[in-house]
Amino acid sequence: MTMPSEATAPHAAVREDSQTVIAFGETLVDQFRDRNVLGGAPFNVACHLGALGAHPVLVTRAGKDALGDQLLQATGERGLDMRGVQRDPARPTGRVKVTETARGHAFDILSDQAYDHIHASLARMVGLSLHPQMVYFGTLSQRGDSRRALRELLATVDACAFLDVNLRDPWVDADTLRWSLQQARVAKLNEDELVRIGDLFSLDGATPQARAAVLLSGFDLQRLVVTCGAGGAWTLDAAGRIESVTGTPLSQVVDTVGAGDGLPPCSCSACCAAGLWPSSWRAPMPLLAPCAAYVVRYRPRRISIVRSYATGGSNLR
Asked: Which of 82, 84, 178, 298 has the highest CB neighbour number within 10 Å of its CB?
């Protein structure tokens, strides 16, 4: 087994009042026909959380290659805490080949990437050293050895678990999804994933809200965040309260890849600020849709845009 190396950059300075959130999972490069874009939901979410004043810590694994060097440089430039970033000398930095079609984006998510092999002991040590308020994780990074790393991390810390569902064929596994929902207090998914999960687990419900209520109660979740593309987003909590926000019309769109990654940071920040009990906070719905809208419109500047919006009148606390 190849042993991972330690992080290769110093830790970012942390404000004493910052809320620590571990973002676990994939860091990768989205390869479009004409450009490469650094990303992966945990990377995007960590950048947004940092812009919102939290203390995000990436727990991920990148290859010892040129793309891995670019990811580490970008992580450092954004001031992120890199103590959880591992390097893999044998496997490549994650790549996703993105094709734009008439029906939207098609994704070829390559297998056996560095992020599939996050070392469990190092992930556990990061959790022990940080005592995070929240652990953000998804389903995509649970394809290989990283599954064990996530389980050890969650077993080590006393933190609210935030699940970001990402159902991408052929990497959809019902057992992994079931386990992930069982660990989570808060889950975010899109409307298509809500339908698919309903089919996978035979959930009743004639409407999306009714299906969400069955999902929420069946897995003892405290809150669901459901994104609806251009239609906006809505949330449902354990008390049955529904809040929604309509989409923001855009005159210019670079691309929509990663748009949904603008929403979890707002929810995470609100959850941390409320003492980590998702039933006690009201989601900052006026902020959620504009965050996603700015991501698709200003991809190269998305982090600074989210920061400027969040500090321009919206109160996450």
From this structure: 84
- Please report the domains of the chain, with CATH numbers, ordered by start residue: 20-307 (3.40.1190.20)
Q: Identify which has the larger pLDDT, 250 or 202.
A: 202
C-alpha to C-alpha distance for 42 and 202, rounded to whole angstroms? 29
Instruction: Please state, in angstroms and rounded to a whole number, the distance separating the CA atoms of residues 47 and 42.
Output: 9
Across the beta sheet with 36-39, what order do the strands follow?
36-39, 28-31, 94-101, 104-109
Mean pLDDT of 147-155: 98
Reduce the DSSP state of residue 193 to 3 states and report it.
Answer: helix
pLDDT, position 299: 44
pTM tops 0.85: no
Query: What are the backbone angles phi and psi of residue 47, rounded to the nearest 5°?
Result: -60, -45
Burial (Cβ within 10 Å: 0-12, 13-18, ≥19) of residue 313: exposed
H/E element, 266: helix 263-273
The reported pLDDT for the residue numbered 13 is 54
